[in-house]
Amino acid sequence: MTQQDALFTILNSEQNMNLLPTSPNWRPVAGLVLSLSTAAVEAEPINFNIPVQGLGESIKRFAQQTGLTVAVDSALIAGRTAPAVQGNLEPEAALKQLLAGSGLTVSVQGNHALISKQSGDTHLKEVAVVGQQPLDGSPEAGYRVDKITAVGPFTNLKLQDAPYSMTILSKDFLDNTQAYATPGGFADKLPSYQHSYTDQRPITGVGNFRGISGTAQQLIEGLPLLTTSNILFLEPYERVEAMSSVSGFMYGIGGSGGKFNYVLKRPTARPVNNITLGFPNGTSFYGHAELGGMRQDGRLGYRFNIAGQDGDTRVDDQSVRKFLVSTAVDYQISDWALLQLDGAYSNYHQNQLPPTWNPANGDSNIHHPSAPDSTKNWGQPWTYADTSTGSVGANLKLDLSKNITSRSSLRYIDTPYDSIYISNSIQPNGTYTELALELKNYDRSQWGGYQLFDIKFNTFSISHTLTIGFSGYGYQEEDAKDYVKTGLLPGVFSLSTPRYVSNPNFVVGTQATYVPTEISLHNWIAGDQIEFNKQWSAIVGAAYSSIEQNGYNTDGAMTSHYEAGAATPTAALTFKPMDWLTTYVSYGEGLQQGLLVSGAQFTNNGAVLPPYLRQQTELGAKATLGNTLLSLALFNIDSALQYSVNNGNGTFTYKQDGQQQNQGIETTITGELMPGFRVLGGFTFLDATVTKNASNPAYVGKRAVGVAEQLVKLTAEYDLPPVRGLTLTGGAYYTSDIYADQLNLDRIDGHTTYDAGLRYTVPLAKHPITFRLNASNITDNRYWLGAFTLGDSLRISGSAQINF
């Protein structure tokens, strides 16, 4: 049902009563409801551009821009025409202009407006309620979001009705957990995601959904990123949409067990102006300014972000310096054409990278020791990472007719990367050796785009939205011929006290560049969203995906070539017996790009493992109970087995051999359990087992390396009633044990961490100030985050944000 159609849905009086203030004069008998708005109304001016049209249409457009809930007797506005309203006006003044000469008046109470005859009779016979407050991800909405931006090619899906398991982290949630200061840290809050790398390493999108890891876990506006180390700044993004399900059909080759879709901040009708200052970790300082608004005619808008951080962290010898600037521009070319442009540049520099850890000689009998203190530098003080990212993007939406829409998107990203880091090899006697690895003049470029058409039509009483189109992605590395050097550091090292040696000062990155790897991915897609009736709906589709990957030596001669393609189906059936309950079953296949090996410690660094087919079946249910969304999903995934082989000298080789099966249950909860008490969390219970391995039969029946069987996570907050504006925050996050080797001999204990904090908003009318204080791992628990890295120690972050 579209927003316009919703205006003609008749509701009973009990349903309408909760949309209006409790004053006895606001008493509808029967009513109509429309959810259009995106934010609560304040008295700040807004740029209006409402043309001469029917009064009902003008009120709907007014509600869209302001977020005001407007109640009016349907008979009073029938057949009336409203004058044009343009300019920078306060909402109440704009509404009064719309009613000029109509003999109607308006009274405003909080975020609600009542339109009545000038006689003052507010006892309405039939009420049109326009602009009900939406689920926008705010604390008042329990951090719930009503609609998903997109699931692959499909749009306008309600989160409750989507036949896939998803969690959406809104801007307010990211703000209030101060996720912007910790790259990738937000993923630790998701009950279906297991993070593999500490936040102290500038790598994001490295982990697993439902026990499945792989390339291209990250998307920007629905376009995949084919490598990690890209999303180090969250400031340009409005929210993160996490999809647990297999997504190969949705996004073409390159899908992993799940996806993070980063949705950009876009211009809004109401001005956005805020400044945040704080300390994200240790003595480092952080600042962020955000500006946004629209021209008076409403056709041109902008969103601008600038952010930076500089200073020492709590880890010995470690400091972080980062800078970001981004902008987004929307231009309404005409009533049927919208052009969106965006661009960003960022630089991230970190001195002292925490090392990776592994047993020496690939020996499964060498077990990980108890986790040492992660605030100590177990690598070397001269290690570092420096990466810059430049990106540009464009979207074009054309409403070609009432029933046909064209959607186009293009994006280009370039990421040069330099680093020197340490790989520690644990010895049988409990000591360890250190291997230094340096990369310099190492550059990765990627680009992508799609062209989709949405076609709406009916077959008898069945409605369809058919989406057809094409997407394509490309990836290229350009490296110096001597871009990587490695060397074993002298002596052995003890876990009792770190020992530091001189920088070997490798000569690296000085030679001419060459292109070692090129990847080209293509995806033709056709999918139909079918609505049989209010209870039954379905999604069916098919895609043909192809991949071509080439490898070259330093002389430019092709040394490897691979080309493959496959047709993959998807299908989902949804049954909604009641408005608050949705049940579904879904099946999907995807031709997946093999892992893109990335890291100087790998002997096949830069190689792309062969494509393979991944299949998933999911049975689930979602229920909205009061102000809370609950979800339950049972899943089964069959996938190729990809794993690294320890070569025993500090290096590894990635292999693809065999099959693994992951099956389990996943639940999520998001919302307000009681007034002022909000939660976001859930659990995943998983069995990830190797089912086939021809070269190593002993691996069969073993648990997949690095995959936990249980994840239980809960983030919560509570508004203290005695002190208006004060909120207590906290969380508990449990990850069960994992195995660090294929034979399941090196077992790493599970861990639990706790968070605590508070938030206080000074209730100033025009310029509210919000203070935030968050502490993660408050018990300073020492643990292994995964098979290769230590978990983060106690981290305290604080900030103050002013809106103006």
Describe this structure in words.
It is a single chain. The chain is mostly beta strands. Helix content is 5%, strand content 53%. The chain is built from seven helices and 46 strands. It has a 22-stranded antiparallel barrel. A six-stranded mixed sheet has the order 1-2-10-5-9-8. Strands 13-18-19-16-17 form a five-stranded mixed sheet. A hairpin with a 2-residue loop joins β28 and β29. α3 (55-66) packs antiparallel against α5 (91-98).
Quick recap:
With 804 residues, this protein is mainly beta.
Summarize the SSE layout with pairings.
Blueprint: H1 3-6, E1 10-11, H2 13-17, E2 30-34, E3 46-50, E4 53-54, H3 55-66, E5 69-73, H4 74-77, E6 81-82, E7 85-89, H5 91-98, E8 104-109, E9 112-117, E10 126-130, E11 147-148, E12 157-158, E13 166-169, H6 171-176, E14 193-195, E15 207-209, E16 218-220, E17 223-225, E18 237-243, H7 248-251, E19 259-264, E20 272-279, E21 285-294, E22 300-312, E23 319-334, E24 337-351, E25 356-359, E26 384-399, E27 404-426, E28 432-459, E29 462-480, E30 484-488, E31 513-514, E32 517-531, E33 536-552, E34 558-578, E35 581-592, E36 612-625, E37 627-646, E38 652-674, E39 677-692, E40 710-719, E41 726-735, E42 738-739, E43 747-748, E44 751-762, E45 769-776, E46 795-803
Parallel strand pairs: 2-10, 5-9, 16-19, 25-27
Antiparallel strand pairs: 1-2, 3-7, 4-6, 5-10, 8-9, 11-12, 13-18, 14-15, 16-17, 18-19, 20-21, 20-46, 21-22, 22-23, 23-24, 24-26, 26-27, 27-28, 28-29, 28-30, 29-31, 29-32, 32-33, 33-34, 34-35, 35-36, 36-37, 37-38, 38-39, 39-40, 40-41, 41-44, 42-43, 44-45, 45-46
